[in-house]
Each structure stands twice: as structure tokens, then as C-alpha cells.
Amino acid sequence: ANAPASNFLRGIIEADLAANKYANRTDPNGHTLPSVVTRFPPEPNGYLHIGHAKSICLNFGLARDFDGRCTMRFDDTNPTKEEQEYVDTILDSVKWLGFNWKDDSGDHLYFASDYFDQMYFMAEYLITAGHAYVDSQSAEDMARNRGNFGEPGKNSPYRDRPAQESLDLFRRMKAGEFKDGEHILRARIDMASPNMNLRDPAIYRIRHAHHHRTGDKWCVYPMYDYAHPIEDAIENITHSFCTLEFQDHRPFYDWVLERLAEGGFFKKPLPEQTEFARLNLTYAITSKRKLLQLVEEKIVDGWDDPRMPTIVGIRRRGFTPESIQLFCERIGVTKSDSWIDMGTLEGALRDDLDAKAPRAVAVLRPLKLIIDNFPENLQEDCTAPVHPHHPERGHRTFPISKELWIEQEDFMEVPTKGYFRLFPGNKVRLRYGYVVECTGCDKDDNGNVIAVHCNYFADSKSGTEGSNNYKVKGNIHWVSAHNALQAEVRLYDRLFSDAMPDAGGKDFKTALNPNSKEVITAYFEHGMGKALADDKFQFERHGYFVADRVDSKPGKPVFNRVVTLKDSWGK
Ligand code: ATP
Ligand code: MG
Ligand code: MG
To answer: One short Pfam family name for this protein (predicted)?
Structure first.
């Protein structure tokens, strides 16, 4: 493989390695810890999407490249929105992308909820040390007293309450003596800080809610900004990568860890947070809330609808893990937000599958072609390579006979300028077969062409001496009508026709592409009856297709179009 391209996150890691910053660390059992430990920390409240794939490739990829470790952590500190179903699909998606949280040192699958006891204990310490207090203002007073950007906030009247009183209240919060919102635990930092995140941020709130893993054990839950640095430190994370919107949260991240290091909970060097630009992909939306809306309003056929930018969706669409990794490598990481063109993702799939996918013939919009001078009951074998650049992969065989299916667009009764395919009097090559000359067509009462007629030249077969005597410009694909496989094809296209469907508060539902899914019945060379769920093909002249992993049955595949051969958008 090629050396991965450099980027600023690699630069940071390389500098830390050169300085031995995280060298010589050991875990509590005395085992040496890697000098690079990253994590992928999703909240189990939805399906992963292509934006998460960027984070996965980044975190697991950097750990792999620097002989480090990447932990798989569920950030499940918010009881009300989280479910086991999401845990399962997230693990499945990460594995499918080609990454693994198990290594020689163990199984690094973690749940933030497993740290609740420690987080609670640390919060008691912060109270005792004078770094946190229980605030009893109403939510409205608290919001008002927080002030606005450019204008200092006001101290809560409870801010100087004695530590012992806060500790007592905090314990009673935990014991369930109060209702949601009655009290809240806050860090004591600086109500005049220009950074709003340092104006005594909340660290624990009361939430009488059932948690998918801890059940009813807790009725106080840690806030994300307090929990995340602790999760990182417990897992010995060195580099904590997150998206840019967390930049202003970093001072609090550092504050939490510094205070807890002072308390002897963590040893230096502490984990460090670095922000990178989130992925914005054109013709897609990557907000969990909006994706949920697409599913709930049945605009798409579920989370794994092949038009969805979810990992389960793009997998079902026919994208390969390698193409997603290639895409993430190509887009790199930057420090400023930008849009990545959907064409880049599609291009990565083409580049991955071009070398891998076996070729096959499919006729998507069938029209009958009758070779009038072909013997009535003859079926003659034609051969074609499985892959044009890999002769070692062998050949496929399919018969030619008197009646074939060709594409409707490969015939024009009255040709336009520059049209080289079938029209009366013109010759074309039937790919892997014979040269034929068109003689005319049959029409129904409405004037629609229902069959095309031609004669073949018996000495023109592809691969024989005589074939060289025929120079024709058109070269069309076909399948024999007598044994072609008939199967359903789902022609997928982009879900939105607007490149930025939800930019600037636009209603993304007005930007839907009405032609994002078309279901047709098509004809295939008969060998395609053996296609198994998830098998991928290049259907010659059409593009890349996959046998749908849900609806394909043995002998009865259903095909999804992943992408066309060339990018035709905007052209
Ligand atoms: P949403 O905002 O849609 O709820 P989220 O960012 O809160 O999604 P998490 O489950 O918390 O979702 O995300 C897990 C990890 O994936 C985080 O580290 C987050 O920064 C990263 N991530 C999420 N979306 C993107 C994106 N579009 N590009 C890059 N990384 C992302
Ligand atoms: Mg989140
Ligand atoms: Mg988010």
C-alpha cells in the first residue's frame, strides 16, 4: 500500500512521538501502554452515517498506522435517547468498515456508563476541593444569569454555599430526593469568562430516567463536557479527536483533567483534544435528526435504504469498505469546514470496483432483435473475459441465438448525426458475437418499435480470423432471449437534486430528487442466476451493481445500481 498522505493530525502525533510525550506509560497492571491511543466515541442514539465513517477511518486508521490502539467507546451518558439496537448496528458498521477494537492487549470495547461510579466519586471530590457547587436556581434564572457573549454573567446566589452543604445536597440528588431540574451540580470557574463554556458549566443533572445499561440505578447523570475528558483519561487516550464545534469546549476539557490530576485521579501526561473539520457531503444530509425524519415519514424505505448516507445504507447500496476507506484517505483532514462532492465518494467506488468487479451483460430497457438469417434452433456459445485486465480470472460463456434482447437506445429508425449503432442499412458488432446489418423494424399500431431485424455475417465472429475483415463503429451488448435471466433492478440515484439540501435552514424535503429510485425488470446473461447476495458486478456500458443483500434469493437476485460508469451529474 502507498504511504498515507500527511495531514495535521499525523503531524501532531509525530511531534508527540518524537518528544516521547506518551512513552513509558503503564496501566494499573504494569503493562506498557501504546504511545498513541485514540477512540471512536459515538452516542448510541442513531445509525452511523458517512460523517462518522470519516471519524472511524481517522481514529482507527491513525492508531493502526502508529502501532497504537483505538478504543470503541459508547458515550452513553444520556439515558433517554439511547438504545441497545443502536449499539448493535454501530458495532456492526465499524467492523464492516474493516476495523477492530480487539488487539493482543485485549478487547477495547467500553461504555461510558461503566464509569458512572468513578465520575460520581470524582464529582464529590470536586465539591470537597471547592471546584464545584450545587446550584438551586431555576433553569430560567440560571440561563439569564449566564449572560451573553460580550457581557459578563452574574454569580448564582448559591455559588458560595459551603462545600459540606453542596456535598449533602449532591448525595440527596443521587438518592432521588429531588425532582428533575430542582438542583444541578456546577463547576466553579468564572462567570465573567469570555468563553461561555467556562461560566460555571453544569456537570451533573437530575434525570429520573431508565438507562439502557444501568437501569434505574442512577437518577443523576453527568453532562457530556464533564464525562468526555474523564472517559478519555480512564481509557488512557492520548489524542482525543473531535469536530470543530468542540473547540470552545477544550478549555473546560483541560480544566476537568487538570483538577482531577491535582486530586490524584489521573497521572500526567493527560489526553489532549484536537479538532478537525466535520464531513459535509453534497447531495446528502448527515444530521441524525433529519435522517430520522426521512425514515419516520417513509420518504425512504428504512435506515438501510440504499439512498441513505448511513453506513447500513451505503453498504446495501453496494459500496465496499475499501471504497469508503479510500474516500476518507482522499478527502484528508483539515481545520476548516468545507463541502466534499458526492462525486468523490462515487469515484472512490469506481476506482475500487474497476479492478475487482467481474463483468457481465445486462439489458435494462429491452428491445427484441431478430437475426433473420440465423438458423432457427441454433444456440452457439460466445465467450467473454470475466475481467478485461485479468485474463487469469478466466472466461464466461453465453449463447447467441436467433432472437436477442438489446437496449432500446441502441436502435434508431432515423439516426441522428453521429449515431453509429443500429439503423436500417448500418452494421454493428454484437459484442463477443457477430457483425450484423440492420434491415428494418416491426411496429405496433401506435407506431412504437417492437422488434428490430438484421442479418448476420457468419464469418465475422469475435476472436476468429474473419472478424478482422469487418470494421464497424458500433459495438452493442445483448443477451439471448431464449435463456436470459429476468430479474428486478433498482436504479438508484442521488436522494436530493440540490447539492446542499439543508444549507441555510432550507427545508430539505423540497430538495428531494423525484427520480432517486426506479424499479425495472431487466435481462441478464444467464450466468447471473448464480449471483449471491452482496456480489458486485460491472454491467458493461451501465455501471456498477450489487445483488441486494436483503432481497436477493438463491437463483433470484435483485440488483441495485451503485453508480453509473461515468459521473454524469451536472453535465
Ligand atoms: P449528530 O450531531 O448528528 O447527533 P454526533 O456528532 O453527535 O451526530 P456522535 O455519535 O456523538 O454523533 O459522533 C461520534 C463521533 O463521530 C464523534 O467523535 C463525532 O465528532 C464524529 N462525527 C459525527 N459526525 C461527523 C461528521 N459529519 N464528520 C466527521 N466526524 C463526525
Ligand atoms: Mg455527539
Ligand atoms: Mg453532534
So the answer is: tRNA-synt_1c_C
